[in-house]
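[Solved] Which block belongs to which protein?

Original post:
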Amino acid sequence: MNENTDDPVYIVPHHSIRSVLSRYPELEQLFESYGLAELRDVPSRSEKAVYLTLEDALRDKNIDCAGFIALAKEHAAAYRTMVKQSLAARSYNQRDLQFLGLMPCPVKIPFDSTFFQFVSREWDGKPPFSYLIESNANNQLAYYTHIPEFKDLTDMPDVVISPGLNGYYHRDFFERFKKKGYFSDVIEHTSPTYDRLDLTDPEGHYSVIGTNIEVMVVDNTRIGDRKVPERWTDLLRPEFAGSVAIRGQDGFFCETVLLTLYKEMGLEGIRMLARSIASAVHPAQMVKNAGSKAGGPAISIMPFFFANLAKNTKDVTIVWPEEGAIVSPVTMIVKRDHREDLDPLISFLAGKETGSPPLGRALPEHGARSHPMRSPRHGVFLDRVGLYPRTRYRQRDRTGQPRICRGLFRELFMKLITVAGPPSSGKTAVILHLIQAAQAEGVRAGVAKFDCISSDDGEIYRRAQIPVCTGLSGGLCPDHFFVANIEACVAWGKKEEFDLLVTESAGLCCRCSPHLKGITAICVIDVLSGINTPKKIGPMLRLADIVVVTKGDIVSQAEREVFAFRVSRANPRAGIVMVNGLTGQGITT
């Protein structure tokens, strides 16, 4: 590696781990993910750690040195950008930006270099527009949840680069913006590789300027006597149960892998994949585990760039599946009515100098001529968490209005929802209508009913052909009984292969919470219970994500609004939905 002391992030192979982390402490988490940070201060090796070079440590772990250093420099550069003006620091407000680039990890550094050369050449380093370039990894979860909140085009920059099938591919964004012709495809260059993939937007709205490619990495020390998978569908075989790692974190899973298998095999393919998944982690963790003694699954699905960090040794094999690697697009979105002074920038981003060469770092060395690739794009739409094939999507409502059920049911693992409320508030009726709406979309659902002395609700669910298990707390607090038994109920739901499990709590203890952290929580309360009830029933309402108000058809509009106001005072962050427990009106509004 050529040494360049003018490089703002200066890391070379002969630097010691201690010196790198002393100079760039923000890299400690990255080093830890590869099992390197512990080499810095271990007492038995503290003296050696001073001299233990990055190159030697990476060689010992079979990690490509050049690739790791490029990744470390990208992380350090992203950290410095983040401190100054990150999306998070500006609360994801983009109204003052004209260009936002959320770049995949492997290409941010080369893109930064090419971009700044262009800005210096075109505008002497002072462009007439404001911009922000960040690593997409810093915003994978947080940023894209803000896209549904866009009220009009001024909420987003004129030009956006974004990797993956994210919020810009979700159905509500398509309905509100894309289908109205607000964007235009501006690609000027051609690429035989991408032309073969047919990644051109047939409606001429989005521009695909590059790709991220997912392949399989097999750990030969853990595969045993099982046949190495050759196709993506091989991962669904029973012998690979609990043997596959997928890119993800905090409830997020690599959407292109899910969409590809869903397109090929439907929901049944997703259920079989869920059986195979052992963990959802960052690719860096996969690289660390591959062929090592650190432990990990036999197979990892990761971007090709990261796969190359785990060198092809006798312990690690990179598998390019027979039917092709999975392609995740890097999309550029350009407003049709953008500012004229952005034209040079757009030509630069869409032209040969930038378009695919930097992003091509993720492609095989000799292109894709001998390696088939496939895109999950055709025939599939995203709906926040949901997956919808195109034909079924067209048969559904075209209003784009939110629904309680929408987006809850198409996840990799079983979805759990807790429902609580005072006695006789209509919990069972609400759950019946909720599950029936879910079943209309092909969702397999069941109910776990928690009560005190006795319960007849189980029979109501069985008459509706909804699987149910019932638990009676007897002399115990029903919410304590719930906490002690919820794991058994979840195990039952997974055994029954439910997509959705709803728990119904008796709700008689107003001091304890019948909800779980990180699990969607619904409180059902009836408007006839009195305007002071919302502040009396404690955590079951105060900690809920959604408050369903029933029996509103019996009172006036003014009374409903007063009651809703009292609910919002008790729980300002919850969504409030008026539902008729008899007819189900409100469940899908």
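(Second protein starts here: sequence line, then its structure tokens.)
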Amino acid sequence: MRQIKTIAQITQEHLAKTAASIRDPAQFNLQSQAIMTRMQSRMMHDPAVVSFSNHYGKALDEALKLLPPTMWPAAIQSLLLQVLIEWEDVHEEFNSQLKVTPNA
């Protein structure tokens, strides 16, 4: 029987992989190229991601202009959490439309 990992476990594995790649310049370059390729493909094929990233990119830019640099780490973390939560909400709303309900 296959063991199912929690989201926290998978997240820790991804973070560890990212941290390890930062210490290895060759691995970091390979990973960066792969991420750029994936990001460019996603941007070309998923206009919602483009809209979302543009909106929150501008929001972050405006927020950082108003805040002192000492507040930037908290502002960035807060905005990243907001992006994740809102994207989950969008995903959930979209998926709920796909559910078949009897007698609908």
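Accepted answer:
You had them paired correctly. Confirming on the second one: The chain has two domains: 1-45, 46-104.
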